[in-house]
Design goal:
Number of domains of chain B: 1
Helix content of chain A: over 70%
Shape of chain A: globular
Number of strands of chain B: 0
Shape of chain B: globular
Structural class of chain B: mainly alpha
Number of domains of chain A: 2
Radius of gyration of chain B: 20 Å
Helix content of chain B: over 70%
CATH superfamily of chain B: Na+/H+ antiporter like domain
Oligomer: heterodimer
Structural class of chain A: mainly alpha
Number of helices of chain B: 20
Radius of gyration of chain A: 21 Å
Strand content of chain B: under 5%
CATH architecture of the largest domain in chain A: Up-down Bundle
Chain lengths: ~425, ~400
């Protein structure tokens, strides 16, 4: 372990020296981004190894490393570099979604379908109600809401709730993959994650359609917005089946160079998704589910993904850490803490009620909620969308507070999930 | 086409190329057998996909994918450096190293002065005023690619001292070329705005940085890592060191070679890294070739005479290098004086160096170096496929 710590420190010093050479010139950011990528990959991984000693998941280490080397702390990765490196986000998310789908077995989920549906239902209802009530009661202390009318505050409360129900599928998959967890508890969290990803997007579009006229006080309810989202989801799912079919045919008949094929196919699909406004995560989740459940190629698929997943996870989470806006968090930390606590409470109550009503046992009731704390890309995406749909101080205020609370959720989420997996006794051996 | 689709296109080509590359049955006729091995078809595919013909890999895509090229170049350097383990080199007769170095340096000097004189009289104005281009042209011209010799030795099951020597020379021959190229890029470096200004400081920086990185990673690799972890760290190392080269405008191939040499002196650690690097050997090589073709901007009208001259001067340089080494250095067995004809094979490392130059300096100079290298690969691979066999037959090492 001493060697790992020392190597990481030496690399940090080296990078500190390199980034302080004021070089200038063409292609500077591109070159800096490349250097930063290699550095981040190694240092974040070493941080993951270090943090493992404290029984925390490695991805917490990657995130913390990202925060430390990111633009708001040591500034070894500038804002521009982080932006450049976020180009790999889509590839990472596609691989993560494919893994999520590939791990999703109907046979295992079928047994827990009632519990999964119930957990999603109660989590969503309770979180939205709690947030709406909180905003209605606390609005006088929120600068951008204190002078607004009841309807505007109600709209904002609903939006806060809608943004808080989302969770990070990437975190779930990364922790499951790292701990090689297997069992009913893992299947439950995975099942909720996959279904909730779709449900959240629909709920959010409905709440935007309802909340936007309330907040802006000038428009009618925009049902076409919900319809658009539904159409996009259906097309994404159809495309996902087609993508799954192509992957399946490849794994069945060609088999060679699977990693190269997967990377190429993912890039191709990302471009197509961009052209047709599809949800990349949904496309690959469906593709993974298709391969896993309609063929015997599920295992080879997961094995091929595992060959490249480690560097992708490390980079993705480290960059996610580096892009967490610490100054925004520091400005709003008090309110962000309230939101985080409220979300934890809502998730706990929702999961607990689901566990009790379906009779799923103590473990789900006691620890189930811990699998749904992490928040990242999906919530950030929805926060950005909020900013676009609700321009002005209210949109900015909502997205800023949500981004602040993501910072906390993303750090504590993986640790809580790993803890719950340990308690459920489903961790086989850490990678 | 977006950079992402450009990358996809290269991935697909690489994918098909790797499948094709693995089959030695393609083009068995003596005249064309070298083509597949040297990878010329992939260069041509790159030309077809590039701006000259279909423009799928347009200049914008090429610019965006530069970091990947830098990485591939770094990969070549690291792999080469890792092979230079002093403990292994010492097992060969002492004069083998001297033989290699002398023929390499003689070739370099002849190509440098030969091309310098020609350029002085007939050259393009931008060539005349760029000594760094001349130095790198001579450096890459002085190298021998091991692929043709290795292929003939395997195909013909050659066993003999000359074949052994040729294999040794071709494996080590690129060392001086890379060193000269690395130092040239440091010497002709534009000064930074702070801290480092002099040429010697750049040279020192590139060497010290590489050694320090080599030591850090050697230290790191002494920890027990699984295969996935080793892959991740090697990947990070290559991207990091190549990125440093790209960032500081120092040669990534040189920096990575020094990192590799530093690590290679510690047996167990370098073996781990080497195994991982070998996994990506074919895809990286095919990628480099396709990209070379795509970014090859030839101006045949202006270049062709110079390229023909380069091929002739290189032939002369290698021939003279081999002749001087064979006649002056005692390797404990008779070496034919025309041994240089068997050391003309041209390939991956030279191409990586030319790419390195084009990446940093671009312009007509970069284009010329690329054209000279690509056409020299085409010519010399066909030639050496015959010359190596002839020399080994004459020596009685091929039945």
């Amino acid at each position: 372990m001493n060697r790992i710590v020392l190597s990481a420190v030496l690399l940090l010093l080296l990078m500190l020296f390199l980034t302080r050479i004021d070089f200038g010139g063409d292609g500077h950011v591109m070159a800096e981004s490349m250097m930063a990528l290699g550095f981040t990959l190694v240092v974040a991984y070493l941080a993951g190894k270090m943090i493992e000693r404290f029984r925390l998941p490695k991805i917490t280490g990657y995130l913390i490393a990202g925060i430390l080397i990111g633009p708001y702390f040591l500034n070894l990765l500038s804002v521009e570099v982080v932006k450049n490196l976020q180009l790999i986000d889509n590839i990472a998310l596609s691989l993560i979604a494919l893994t999520a789908g590939g791990e999703f077995r109907f046979s295992a989920i079928k047994k827990q379908l009632r519990l999964i549906n119930s957990a999603i239902f109660w989590q969503i209802i309770i979180v939205i109600i709690l947030f709406t009530l909180f905003i209605l009661g606390y609005y006088k202390r929120i600068s951008f809401l204190q002078n607004e009318s009841f309807l505007v505050i109600l709209g904002a409360g609903l939006l806060f709730g809608a943004l808080s129900i989302a969770k990070s599928p990437a975190t779930t998959i990364a922790v499951i993959s790292e701990t090689r967890a297997k069992g009913p508890f893992t299947d439950f969290v995975l099942g909720v994650t996959v279904f909730k990803d779709v449900v959240v997007v629909i709920i959010f579009s409905i709440i935007i359609a309802l909340g936007k006229p309330l907040i802006l006080q000038q428009e009618q309810i925009q049902l076409f917005y919900v319809l658009n989202v539904l159409i996009e989801i259906v097309i994404s799912m159809i495309f996902g089946f087609a993508a799954g079919g192509i992957i399946l045919l490849y794994l069945k008949y060609i088999k060679e160079q699977k990693v190269l094929f997967l990377l190429g196919f993912i890039i191709f699909s990302i471009e197509l998704s961009r052209m047709f406004h599809l949800e990349v995560i949904l496309v690959f989740m469906v593709a993974g589910i298709f391969v896993q459940n309609f063929s015997h190629a599920g295992r080879p698929l997961i094995e091929a993904i595992e060959e490249v997943s480690l560097p992708i996870f490390v980079t993705f989470f480290a960059i996610a850490g580096a892009s967490l806006k610490l100054p925004v968090f520091l400005e709003n930390w008090k309110l962000a803490l309230y939101l985080v606590t409220l979300r934890l409470l809502g998730t706990y109550l929702g999961t607990n009620i689901a566990g009790k009503t379906t009779g799923s046992g103590r473990q789900i009731e006691k620890y189930g909620w811990m699998g749904f704390v992490g928040q990242a890309g999906l919530t950030l995406g929805l926060a950005t969308l909020t900013l676009k749909e609700i321009p002005g101080p209210i949109g900015i205020g909502i997205s800023t507070l949500i981004i602040s609370s993501i910072t906390i959720n993303q750090i504590i989420g993986p640790a809580l999930f790993k803890f719950s997996l340990q308690k459920s006794g489903e961790i086989r051996s850490s990678k | 086409m977006t950079p992402f689709l450009g990358l996809l296109l290269i991935l697909v080509t690489t994918f098909i190329g790797v499948r094709f590359f693995g089959r030695s049955t393609v083009l068995k006729t003596p005249l064309f057998s070298g083509l597949i091995v040297s990878g010329v078809p992939y260069i041509l595919i790159g030309v077809i996909l590039g701006p000259r013909i279909f423009n799928f890999l347009n200049p914008d895509v090429i610019i965006h994918l530069k970091p990947l090229i830098s990485m591939a170049i770094g990969w070549v350097g690291l792999l080469f450096g890792l092979q230079l383990r002093w403990r292994n080199i010492r097992r060969f007769p002492g004069n083998y190293v001297l033989f290699t170095s002398v023929q390499s340096m003689v070739s370099f000097v002849i190509i440098f002065f030969g091309m310098g004189a020609i350029l002085h009289f007939i050259g393009h104005p931008s060539l005349r005023n760029r000594p760094e281009a001349l130095l790198i042209l001579a450096a890459l011209g002085s190298m021998t690619a091991p692929i043709s010799i290795g292929r003939i030795i395997i195909e013909k099951k050659v066993k003999g001292r000359l074949a052994h020597l040729l294999q040794f020379v071709s494996s080590l021959d690129s060392f001086w070329g890379i060193v000269i190229a690395g130092l040239t890029m440091a010497i002709y470096h534009s000064p930074a705005l702070r801290w480092i200004s002099g040429q010697w400081q750049w040279i020192l920086l590139s060497i010290i940085l590489s050694v320090v990185i080599g030591i850090i990673f050697r230290f790191l690799f002494s920890t027990r890592f699984g295969q996935e972890e080793t892959f991740l760290i090697v990947l990070g190392l290559i991207i990091f060191t190549s990125g440093i080269g790209f960032y500081l405008r120092l040669s990534p191939i040189f920096i990575n070679m020094i990192v590799g040499i530093t690590m290679a002196q510690f047996h167990r650690e370098s073996d781990k890294v080497m195994r991982v690097l070998h996994l990506a050997e074919k895809p990286t090589y095919v990628f480099l070739l396709v990209f070379a073709g795509a970014s090859w901007n030839f101006h045949f009208g202006e270049e062709i005479l110079l390229i023909v001259t380069f091929i002739a001067v290189r032939f002369l340089g290698k021939y003279a290098g081999g002749w001087i080494s064979a006649s002056r250095i005692d390797c404990a067995f008779p070496i034919p004086r025309d041994v240089g004809k068997a050391l003309l094979s041209f390939g991956g490392i030279s191409l990586a160096l030319a790419f390195n130059f084009q990446l940093f300096y671009g312009g007509f100079m970069g284009d010329f170096l690329m054209s000279a290298t690509i056409l020299a690969i085409l010519f010399f691979d066909e030639y050496t496929a015959i010359s190596i066999r002839q020399i080994l037959q004459r020596q009685g090492e091929i039945a």
